[in-house]
Design goal:
The structure is a single chain. With 222 residues, this protein is mainly beta. It contains 1 helix and 12 strands; from the N terminus they run αββββββββββββ. The protein has a 12-stranded antiparallel β-sheet with strand order 6-5-4-3-2-1-12-11-10-9-8-7, covered by helices on one side. Strand 9 (165-179) and strand 10 (182-191) form a beta hairpin. The longest helix is centred in the N-terminal third of the chain and has 11 residues, at 2-12. It is globular. The relative contact order is 0.22.
Length: 222
């Protein structure tokens, strides 16, 4: 179960790599509309998936992710960042056993004319991950160094239907990570002026494959 949670946390930290630029909200051009940042914004997701071993299903996963922007604070490098609090709870049912994993953590995010950035702390100039602007289909980059994850913009025109609604002109990004025998393939969709609406990933470790589909159920965005 450690591998599963590791993957979830990495993807939930979605964001930037220590470049400069004026901190702003979603008004920085059309690219920034995919990352609406305002205190009080909240997104609620449902999570479902399964675990297989050598192709045989051995467990099911159900859970919830609540992500909220709770404040704005100065970073030690001289710019402001938004406080993003993430709370996830997954239940794994396998072989008559129930395993519940609660994960709560805080990241610090911002949008500039250069892209979307995320930080694990309020000190240090380097962000943990990065989505560069302008967004262009086919663009590839090193999303994060640890874990060593690459990213590619797959589309800027996806239509995605989830419980919260049907969203057009979605940004779709694919992620790929291989480390210590683990492989993670991930596809994430963002809707303009809404934010992340769907996240699907498949994580493999030896014969164990875990797939989780996270979809937006409700949201409140200024």
């Amino acid at each position: 179960m450690k591998e599963i949670i590791h993957g979830l946390v990495v993807l939930a930290l979605f964001a930037g790599c220590g470049t400069s630029g004026s901190p702003t909200g979603p008004q920085v051009g059309s690219d920034a509309s995919y990352y609406p940042l305002s205190v009080g914004n909240q997104w609620v997701y449902s999570r479902s998936g399964n675990m297989t071993v050598a192709g045989i299903q051995v467990g099911t996963i159900n859970g919830e992710n609540v992500t909220e922007i709770t404040g704005e604070v100065p970073h030690s490098s001289g710019f402001n960042v938004f406080i993003q609090e993430i709370s996830m709870c997954d239940t794994l049912e396998t072989a008559g056993q129930t395993i519940i994993n609660d994960t709560t953590f805080t990241t610090f995010v911002r949008v500039t004319d250069l892209g979307f950035f995320s930080y694990l702390s309020l000190t240090g100039s380097d962000s943990t991950s990065f989505v560069p602007f302008p967004l262009q289909v086919g663009a590839t980059w090193q999303f994060s160094q640890d874990p060593p994850m690459t990213a590619e913009i797959l589309s800027l025109s996806e239509t995605v239907s989830v419980p919260a609604g049907t969203f057009e002109d979605c940004l779709e990004i694919g992620f790929h990570w291989i480390e210590s025998g683990q492989t993670l393939q991930n596809v994430t969709d963002f809707a303009p002026n809404v934010g992340r609406v769907r996240n699907v990933y498949t994580q493999s470790y030896e014969a164990v494959v875990t797939t989780v589909d996270e979809v937006l159920v409700s949201y409140s965005v200024d």
